[in-house]
Amino acid sequence: MVANLSSVFVLLTMLLAGCSSGSQMTMTPNVPPPTTAEFAFVTNLNSNTVSAFEVEASGMLLRVGTFPTGGGPEFIAADSSGSFLFVANTASNDLSAFQIDGMTGMLTAVAGSPFAAGMQPEGVAVVSGGLHFLFVANTAGNSISAFKFDPMSGALSPVPGSPFSGIAAPFGVATDILGKFLFVTNRDANTVSVFSIDNTTGALTAVAGSPFPTGSTPIGLASDPNGSFVYVGDHMSDTVSPFSVDPVRGSLTPVTQLPPPNPGCSSSCHLNPLRVAIHPTARLAFVANVGANSLSSFAINHGVLLPASDPVSTGQHPFGVAPDPSGNFVYVVNKLDDDIAGFSVNTTTGALTPLANSPFPSGGSQPVGIVIVRPE
Question: Fewer CB within 10 Å: C terminus or N terminus of the chain?
Fold first, then answer.
């Protein structure tokens, strides 16, 4: 009997020791693993909607749903955590804000949405990482609207002094990785403006030397993930102009000679680069050529863009372009075909290969903007 009691005592001791040491016997709460799902969101200009898709491991897009926006949604952006989605409505002069369900990709309108912007809001840029600012280019209003967004609810409140003027037909906007500077293409002035961002209030102040000359009709704009370079799509010069960014002052220096203006010709002789996107590794760039119905891939070498492969065919009028966060795929929306072309990316060479079942229906009419997120 004593021996049996001793055995029980030893067994209990071992069990308790196992619990305290974190062995397999430890009782742990049933916490679901973090999601690794990716979702693509597409603005449909003529439908006044945004479509949501789940990005499969194969790159295939599975539509989650379609959600109403304001009038004429075009540019679209998400915060870095993938919690909120913001859409610029060019026809209703406002911004739609949505909360993203990180498990399903479903969208829920933020309380108070839509939020008033200036006239013809186009490009949208979000600064996250503790700052929580949002900027939108009001093309017809020649101004930038600045907002602070609530990281819990997604609600927008105007920054003191907003809107900020002193720009000509602003179109594309982007920020550096640290949220120190805002870059804005001035479509009608052939320049790009740079503003410093007050990290407390979000107020904008033009940096010394701004605006900086670009090629003809700058529209597309992207900054690299390292914050060292900015790339401007010169729509009527048929080029992409790279600039190095001074990390302290924000001033821009052309990496290569700026392109001369193209001679007058019909639209058929232009590539018309429209949107620019940078691969997550900062080693590749993708450019949608709306005049040539193609997507170009470039290798980046110290800011210089070198063709990585021949352009690949898209649909008609490719507009928005976005790589997924993994960098394995890139997608472009085709405005006149109402679909989305998807390509696998060779991350070593930059070569693009059409995905099986591509193009995918956009779920709306005249898709023009796309963003892909991986919710945290």
Answer: N
> Tell me, what's the pLDDT at 264?
55
- Rounded to whole angstroms, the Cα distance separating 164 from 187 reads 17
User: H or E segment at 10?
Assistant: helix 2-21
pLDDT < 70: residue spans in the chain:
1-35, 258-270
* Residue in 172, 91, 89, 169 with CA at minimum distance from that of residue 125: 172
Taken in order 147, 149, 154, 158, is the CA torsion positive or negative?
negative
Domain 166-271 sits in CATH at 2.40.10.500
Look at residue 235 in the predicted model and tell me its pLDDT.
Answer: 79
How far apart, in whole angstroms, are the C-alpha atoms of residue 119 and residue 84?
A: 23
Q: What are phi and psi of 357, to 5 degrees?
A: 70, 5
Render 96-145 in DSSP notation, one character per residue. Answer: EEEEE-TTT--EEEPTT-SEE--SSEEEEEEE-TT--EEEEEETTTTEEE
247, amino acid identity:
P
Nearest CA to 111 among 98, 92, 126?
Answer: 98
Domain boundaries along the sequence of the chain: 166-271
The pLDDT, as a whole number, for residue 1 is: 42
Rg (CA), the chain: 24
- Report yes or no: 243 and 254 within 8 Å, Cβ to Cβ: yes
Give counts: helices (H), strands (E), the chain. 1, 32
Q: How far is CA 86 from CA 83, 95, 174, 204, in A?
A: 10, 7, 14, 20
Interval 115-138: pLDDT, tens: 999 999 999 999 977 789 999 999
Contacts of 200 (CB under 8 A, 6+ apart): none
Q: What is residue 177's predicted lDDT score, i.e. its pLDDT?
A: 86
Burial class (CB in 10 A: 0-12, 13-18, 19+), 37: middle
DSSP category for residue 376: -
Helix (H) or strand (E) holding 4: helix 2-21
